[in-house]
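Incident review: delayed structure delivery

Summary: a single-chain prediction request sat in the queue longer than the usual turnaround. Root cause was a stuck worker, restarted by the on-call engineer. No data loss occurred. The affected request and its eventual output are reproduced below so the record is complete for anyone auditing the incident later.

Affected input:
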Amino acid sequence: MSYLLTATCAVPAAGAVLTAALPAGSDESRRRLAKSAALGVSLATLVLAAVVAVRFEPGGARYQLTESYSWIRSFGISFSLGADGIGTVLVLLTAVLVPVVMLASWHDADPAPAPGGSFEAKRRTQGFFALILAVEAMVVVSFLATDVFVFYVFFEAMLIPMYFLIGGFGDRAGGPESARQRSYAAVKFLLYNLLGGLVMLAAVIGMYVIAQQQGFATFDLPTLTSAIADGKLVFSGTAEKALFLGFFFAFAVKAPLWPLHTWLPNAMGESTAGTAVLITAVVDKVGTFAMLRFCLGLFPDASKTFAPAILVLAVVGIIYGALLAVGQKDIKRLIAYASISHFGFIIMGIFAMTSQGQSGATLYMVNHGISTAALMLVAGFLISRRGSRLIADYGGVQKVAPVLAGTFLIGGLATLSLPGLAPFVSEFLVLVGTFSRYPALGIVATFGIVLAALYVLVLYQRTMTGPVKDSVRGMPDLKVRELAVVAPLVALTILLGVYPKPLTDIVNPAVDDTLSQVHRTDPAPAHPVAATPGGEQK
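Output delivered after worker restart:
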């Protein structure tokens, strides 16, 4: 048995403990040691994730590199890991973004001067970077777990480090009431997601009880889905719908899906730019990923029953998020509402239940993570220079910091899905896949693209063009460390925009398997290609 997946999960977890245990102190040398150690651990995790991706065989079994360790025998619980195509690309996304976030957040946890050096000042840097590694470890386990109970445990556990990252290390440009606002955002994040998790726990217990009565006393996902597909494990119609809703509610809160989204703008607005990226580009992806793996795999009939209603909510989220983004005065809240709109596209692609839609949704998870990280981190660099999140406080930045403005533009153009950049491919596939089965919803969703162009271009115009405001006249351009943060994200945005095949090759077999679990095939073309008398198609 290979231990590769265990190592990929264990390295950031051990790194979090190591970083937290480093010698305390508020002097620069000790802070640099904690930062360097955490960054080194995140790069080691990236190497392991890359090895997983290389060793994964797209044409092979659904779950590969599998590992299983008995945990609670009496309930059939085991610490089981397995990589499928969808989980593999999301683990790779997480492993790429965490070191980028660390570099971008290099000085975000530097303590404010305190007489005598308080305990908080001494431990602040170690705590911040240890929490980031803890989040990474729990997210990676969630993407690889093939035991439903193990997934639930880490799905909930990741809330704890995220709560402290939001509430304890928030945005320093939030104004005089920043501490109170951070506390409110952190508590709201925790309560919303805990509620979703408690509902899911009830559904997990209910699923186990019903499965046990039919001879399947296990939480092993491949065993359960295989038994469901073969008709050996049957949930009654009412029970399956109730269990589906229990799982889906938790994932919709995490995703977040309208109208369960209201925690996200507060959390992203009051967080540092790096923490905001962790929220929307990493943690929230666990929700959409779980819809594919657990909702569709365990409850195929209920998934088809509720798909039209979920698609309506997704389309409402697309338009609602985009409209609110247009009217925002706060840069970070604008990006948060834009993300709500984009998550609507992802969920729409999942529940359209077509190969194009689900392939596009999975690619969208990756591409949205990269493009939003680029835009949010550059916005963070901008805000740290001026000390304000308000759009009105900027103007003419491109004349004093052209590289910063240029990278901000690329991140913005990716956000509006400009052809040639990565999000365009995924958004196009989602719309095509949705239109082929639900044409009316596909048409309405396209208005989200128009609104995206509006809020991105207006944001760029108001902050980067026009006369140079006195408050930004001396603004420095991007530094070497900041360029090292942005460059890989820009490169990936362009590369995956012109050549997404490496990802689609990994993802498509898992998508086909998911569609077979819900007994769905792509709709036949409305106008099939006619054949000529000679046997040639025209």
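Verification: Residues 114-120, 534-538 have pLDDT under 50 and may be disordered.
Action items: add queue-age alerting; document worker restart procedure.
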